[in-house]
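User: Can you help me understand a structure? I only have the sequence.
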Amino acid sequence: MNQLLEAYQEHLTIIRSLSQNTIEAYIKDLLSFEDYIQKDLLEVQSEDLLSYLSTIQNPLTQNRHLSSINSFYNFAQENFDNVIKPQGSFAKLPQKLPKYLDNDTIMQSLDLIDRSKLLGLRDYAIIVFLYATGVRVSELINLTKNDYQNNWIKVRYAKGSKQRVVPIANFAQKALDNYLEKRDNKNEYLFLNYKGNPISRISIFKITQKYCGVSPHVFRHSYATSLILGGADLIVVSELLGHSSLETTAIYTHISQAHLRDTIKEYHPLSKDKI
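Assistant: Let's start by predicting it. Here is the structure, written out as tokens:
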């Protein structure tokens, strides 16, 4: 790997604070691009980029590579003179609504948890916490008790270098307090495994699969969907989720539109087959 990519890798690690897996994915995409064009990355033209993207058949993969390349050239333009960023367009993707659970479904799943034991209290608190805050799993596993203050949670390990604070609903606060009161308070992390160590990402996945049959990320979608259907402002929801762009949050407006359409179909007399 050349010095330029090494500097970029350092930027991703220190300045943007990305995970090691994300950094490796960025660098792998750039190395693939460099291998294809067979020239210095700072001498690349738009025609080179378009030619490279045309070799990638899957539109999702194509967009990921373009995102990696764009990120690199944004870095290069900020740190070097006379860098020309090659231009490419993202492939259009079919609009897919994110999977989410409604409130009743989540509450019914919570009833399955045996809260007479510590691990049951923990599992209950984790699911309620995910649904009540919309945090990512990578954020949840790094939370400490010091991040939980006065009904707010400080998300210190958000994507990139961003931080945010999120209010916690009373229901989730009570579930979390019940768990914290019963466990050993020596460890600073908010959620622990059965050995008393910080809980892992895979353990969170197993918990949400066991009781709800979904991945933890579905609760993030459920959180956002509940807010949008309840009438929350899109900008506020975007801030609560820690999205860097409002466009990322805009997908949830499609859920709202689908909800309105279904309501009309169910309740308006002109939507019935027979009038």
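Now, to help you interpret it: DSSP finds 13 helices and three strands in the chain. The mean pLDDT is 86. Let me know which part you'd like to focus on.
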